[in-house]
Amino acid sequence: MRRSDRVSVLVPLLIMSIGLGVLAWRSYELSARLEDGVNTLASQYAGYAADITARRTDSVVRNAIFEASEEWQQIERRTAVPTSASLEQWMKSNEWISSAIYVPDVDPTHSIFVSEPVGRHTNGTRLTREFYTSSGLVRYSYDPDRLLERVQPVLHQQPLMQRAETQPQAQLAIVPAPSKHGDARLTDGFAYTAPLAPPLSGYAIRAFVRTAYGSSGWENARYISVWVSVLALALTALGAYLALHGLKREAETMKLRGALIANVSHELRTPLSMIRLGAETLKRSSKLTEKQRAEIEDAVLREVLHLSHMVENVLDVARIQNRSTKALAFTPVYPRELVTSLVSTYESWITSRGFEISLQIEEAVEEQLWDRDAVSRAVLNLIDNAVKYCGDTKFLGITLRQSPEHVIIDVQDRGIGIAAADLPRIFDPYYRAQFSDTQTRRGAGLGLTLVQQIMVSHGGRVEAESTPGTGSTFRLLFPRGSASSLQTAPALAEAPQPF
Amino acid sequence: MRFRTCQIVVAIVSLLAVSAQAQEKRKCTTPPAECERIIRQMLSGRRYLGVQLQELNPGLSVKSVVEDSPADRYDLRPGDRLMAVNGKSTRDATIQDFKQILGQAKETGRLWIIVQRGGILKKIELRMEPYTKAQIDKIVAQHMAEAHNIAAAPAQR
What we know:
- Chain A is of the alpha+beta class.
- Helix content of chain A is 49%, strand content 19%.
- Chain A is rod-shaped, with a radius of gyration of 51 Å.
- Chain B folds into 2 domains: 28-46 and 131-157, no CATH class; 48-129, Pdz3 Domain (Roll), CATH 2.30.42.10.
- By secondary structure, chain B is α+β, with helices and mostly antiparallel strands.
- The longest helix of chain B is centred in the N-terminal third of the chain and has 25 residues, at 2-26.
- Classes of the chains: A alpha+beta, B alpha+beta.
């Protein structure tokens, strides 16, 4: 891949990364500011809610105490001489009072004392209050916890919250007065404690405002923003990798195309030169013997056949790759008949090259639904390869057999073989194994590509086994099925797309 | 005759039951010792004056004075009209106003009262005192007798 290509991909990605980085930084900064703002609001609201609720509580408590004294004054006015029954009645309507004594001015020794029933006694603290009446003095002790029960409705009123359906923002509770009042930052929010006024100065209102920013977990927007940025950068890096990878493949394809043009033009020029030379010789030389003339004609014919074979290969590959033309013509074919006729057609040519042919055919192979021409071309390409890449031992083995799932055609040679590194790529278009021998052998690098594409079109596959110096075996595996069971011709299968 | 006797018996039993129920109603369920503790705690150390006032519309006068109380000892007498207490005029005051002044002087217990007795103004300086032990004992005994049916123990001085 050229440096300029790399730059052309990396520069936009770098700009995108910088843009993302700036966005992420800005998002982080905004989250941090938002967090500060929310924290300030939350702590202020906690303080406000606690203070307001404490004052409301004070008011409720003061009212309760005042109403109790007023009620007693009314009882006193109604009854000339208060009795224990009236004191008891007064306590019942002020259930937070646990015991009371009325001391009349006229004679303190005639005081009335009433204590609440035993069952209501608790071990809690008791506070004492007194008030003067027109005819005496009432002192009473009360349970502050019971008095504070009257305050519960106040705790459900959110200060500043207009709508009832709004979720409470502050959790309000009555707590024993802590040694230190004021605000406190907790792990998941803010709390503020506001003391109550006397007589309940031993108690305080605690408001707690929960905020996600108080936490350090996934709820915190700042952390989310950081992780999203990391994810975005990782995705950008992945994109860069994929773009570079694609570019590399593109460059490779371009290189292969260049190789094709060079290769094909070379391959076309050689037989054309031979044909032109032969034709010119035949035309101009009248003194040629019959034998010489026949040799030249044979040579011209051979070159024409070779040229035609190569052009067919190129056209077939292009056609199957583009998938733009008609589907293959599937017709019932006897594989045995196809292989034997193919071998008999090319036997003289093969044996003329000094090859020994071994043909093994299982009798039981059933009739198949194949494209006869395409399968013949595939087998012929393999035979051509075996002949082309021959070694010292000139052997060609062709086997036709069938397994429970496949009809198999093996083409075996004892030629130069294929290196293990090249094996995975031999089916790539225009690929030719890079060693010195191949440069002396003619071909466009399309034969095996065509074989593979034909096999894929038939729903089968091609396998290759090879040991350098010992030979290669190419195995065509067709899915097994009798011609009668295949009613419709399969459409052209998806061929691999190398471009 | 017999029928009348039965009627009388039924009436007596009903009366006893009703009175017992009434007594039961007033009965204090708090243990006596607890009641005594609370009463003593509530009254000990509390100061009192020992006068009963009446409103004259306008003004206040002493209706009665508790025997052996601070008011009695400092020579407040029934019929005295209160003109001022602790520097505040009580010429037009109500009992509530007076009690308010009393409440303010609760801590020190000191009172300066100007009374009008027989057309003559008299300044009385006195100090409210705590209830005596005998008074508290009496209050406790009274509660025990009324609410717990416990006979009063002989007063101990």
